[in-house]
């Protein structure tokens, strides 16, 4: 009878939101998830390649779809759940977010940077880059719409976090009730599978970070650098100085990818996302890899990315990526906003996460 009830609940949900599903973890608890079908680079506006976008490749096996949490997650009994009208879990570290996701069973994982990039490029390609809670309960571009507060106001009586999915349709990634909510603002979201080591970009191949058996620990041997010459993955030297690898430099007040670093600093620096560039040492193939993890444009002539910002640290041993922005980031927040100045042990009231799922 329980299975029949689950089927009826899913049917009711899909009558309103056809691509939404209730997925149940290994203890039978539901999450509202959005199904994203397999896509190519070309379908996402990233050149003409008909190769499958790497978010749909886990352990060299193509997946017909992945599922992304419709809502920023809460945590119950040490497990992550995507549910509406809740105060999203915050004050959580990178490793705690991974644990809350993988505790749910096989296929469940912390949303990866590659999956986040998939959504960002889809929104860009379809003209639906979402608004959100980036201005104390509302979007900077909206004066009327507000969401339901879910935590105490700050000392100036301003709204901080809001309840998941309670904003207007402009806060949905596709501007419909079927979409994914709060990718812009509310709380920063940890993303897996990509990090920086002294400015060197390192990642797990394709979307292998979605498999909980592939360690993302600081000392994991699975982290690979990017060969600037051809986009292939190469073993890093552990010091961020791998010969020929893609690294993050800071030139003329903007981020520039190169095989060398002329300006290194263990501090946060940044520029508008659309100002991030590559020098002549970065091949088209390597730039496509950077685009696939949401860290650079593939077509450098495209400059309209709202006012989304890019922040990084190229002087520290291990920095993970936060995405989207928080309630107080204003025009900097957005689906392309990437923040790479946080250690994996950092947490605050403005940092949360969301889980994702693939069929293992």
CA radius of gyration is 19 Å
User: How many DSSP H or I helices?
Assistant: 4
Low-confidence stretches: none
Helix content: 10-25%
What fraction of the residues are assigned to beta strands by DSSP?
15-25%
Number of extended strands: 21
Gross morphology: globular
Structural class: alpha+beta
Largest sheet: 9 strands, mixed
The succession of helices and strands, N to C, reads HEEEEEEEHEHEEEEEEEEHEEEEE
Distance between the termini: 26 Å
Calculate the mean pLDDT score and round it: 96
Question: Can you describe what's shown?
Answer:
The chain has 360 residues and is an alpha+beta fold. Helices cover 13% and strands 24% of the residues. The protein has helices spanning 2-16, 94-102, 113-126, 284-292; strands at 20-24, 30-37, 57-58, 61-62, 65-69, 74-76, 79-81, 108-110, 188-197, 200-203, 224-226, 233-234, 247-251, 254-258, 269-272, 277-278, 309-312, 319-323, 338-342, 351-352, 355-357. The strands form 5 sheets. Strands 9, 10, 11, 12, 15, 17, 18, 19 and 20 form a 9-stranded mixed β-sheet that branches. It is globular and about 55 Å long. The mean pLDDT is 96.
């Amino acid at each position: 009878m329980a299975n029949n009830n689950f089927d009826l609940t899913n049917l009711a949900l899909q009558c309103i939101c056809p691509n939404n599903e209730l997925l149940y973890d290994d203890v039978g608890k539901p999450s509202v998830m959005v199904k994203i079908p397999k896509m190519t680079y070309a379908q996402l506006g990233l050149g003409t390649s008909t190769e499958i976008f790497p978010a749909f490749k886990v352990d060299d096996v193509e997946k017909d779809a992945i599922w992304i949490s419709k809502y920023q997650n809460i945590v119950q009994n040490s497990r992550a759940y995507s549910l509406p009208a809740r105060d999203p879990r915050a004050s959580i570290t990178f490793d705690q977010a991974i644990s809350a996701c993988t505790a749910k069973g096989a296929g469940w994982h912390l949303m990866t940077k590659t999956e986040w990039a998939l959504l960002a490029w889809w929104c860009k390609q379809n003209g639906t880059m979402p608004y959100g809670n980036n201005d104390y309960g509302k979007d900077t571009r909206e004066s009327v719409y507000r969401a339901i507060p879910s935590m105490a106001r700050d000392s100036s009586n301003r709204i901080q976090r809001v309840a998941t999915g309670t904003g207007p349709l402009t806060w949905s990634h596709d501007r419909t009730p079927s979409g994914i909510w709060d990718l812009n603002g509310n709380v920063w979201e940890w993303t897996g599978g990509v990090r920086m080591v002294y400015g060197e970009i390192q990642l797990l191949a394709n979307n292998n970070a979605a498999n909980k058996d592939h360690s993302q620990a600081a000392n994991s041997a699975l982290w690979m650098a990017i060969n600037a010459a051809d986009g292939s993955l190469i073993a890093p030297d552990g010091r961020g100085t791998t010969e020929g690898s893609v690294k993050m430099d800071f030139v003329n007040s903007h981020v520039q990818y190169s095989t060398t670093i002329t300006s290194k600093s263990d501090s946060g620096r940044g520029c508008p996302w659309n100002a991030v560039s590559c020098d002549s040492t970065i091949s088209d193939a390597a730039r496509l890899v950077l685009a696939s993890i949401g860290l650079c444009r593939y077509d450098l002539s495209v400059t309209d990315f709202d006012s989304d910002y890019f922040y990084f640290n190229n002087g520290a041993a291990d920095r993970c990526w936060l995405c989207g922005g928080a309630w107080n980031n204003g025009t900097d927040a957005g689906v392309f906003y990437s923040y790479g100045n946080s250690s994996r042990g950092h947490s605050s009231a403005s940092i949360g996460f969301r889980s994702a799922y693939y069929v293992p």
